[in-house]
Amino acid sequence: MQINEFTSKWFVFKAYGHENVKATHKTTIEITKDDYLTTKGDCIIGIKSNISVNNFPNWLKENIKKGNMVLVIFCSKKYCDSLIGYGDSNLILNSETKIIFRKSSYIEPATALIRSNKAAADLDRKLIDDLKKGEELTIMITTILKNW
Length: 148
Known about the structure:
globular; Jelly Rolls; 9 strands; mainly beta
């Protein structure tokens, strides 16, 4: 198996941290359009997003559904962290309210990728500390095209 090229496109959008960001969940990371966060939302790192998985551009959805590798970068003003996961032809990609990155292979409408190498608990704590202050979160997504 060889990975031979990145797409030239990145999908970039914003969300915001919140004082209740815990980022302790061991299998998922979530971004939501909701404007609040309770302490039970231990996988949520960003709220007030204007994007849900349903709003991903067609080129991104198509590349994800082809099973390509997906690279996601999360940045505050000072810190960044990233993850790599995989698309799948069975992904639904139509939630109107959230985006979920999963370590598992579980699929539901908000699942954007599966078999991620990171969950919320694995993210850089300096980034999470910024998000606990309500700082802006920039999310960048691209796919790595496979050639096999």
